[in-house]
Structure to design on (122 residues):
């Protein structure tokens, strides 16, 4: 039996481009694939992910993938930021205070909630 793709009628149930960029960043950093992580970070920053959001994702990763992989991924983020600066590409540091300091859902929460196997954080 084949399943047809689910249609989403409520826009609040879809992920923004910024939120969609989080998944490959987290997955490639956890796998330790720094070459592909570089590209994913570029795409994420181009999609509107702020530097603070990218750092938050990579810092949270240490609990799941280990400190060395998290630290290597943060180093790769710094390389990406240096390369963007040399090319003259403007990068958003943080348009607003990051979710870490606000009383609302973190930017990566919708990504986790789309996965059926992970419980949603409250």
């Amino acid at each position: 039996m084949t399943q047809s793709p689910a249609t989403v009628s409520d826009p609040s149930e879809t992920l923004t481009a910024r939120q969609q960029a989080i998944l490959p960043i987290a997955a490639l950093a956890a796998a330790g694939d720094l070459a592909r992580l570089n590209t994913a970070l570029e795409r994420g920053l181009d999609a509107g992910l702020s530097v603070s959001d990218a750092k938050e994702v990579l810092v949270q990763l240490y609990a799941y993938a280990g400190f060395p992989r998290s630290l290597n991924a943060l180093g790769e983020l710094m390389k990406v930021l240096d390369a963007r600066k040399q090319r003259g590409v403007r990068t958003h540091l943080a348009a607003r205070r990051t979710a870490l300091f606000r009383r609302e859902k973190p930017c990566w929460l919708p990504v986790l909630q789309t996965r059926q196997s992970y419980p949603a954080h409250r």
Q: What stands out?
A: The two ends are 36 Å apart (CA to CA). Helices lie at 17-20, 22-31, 34-46, 51-60, 62-65, 67-87, 109-114.
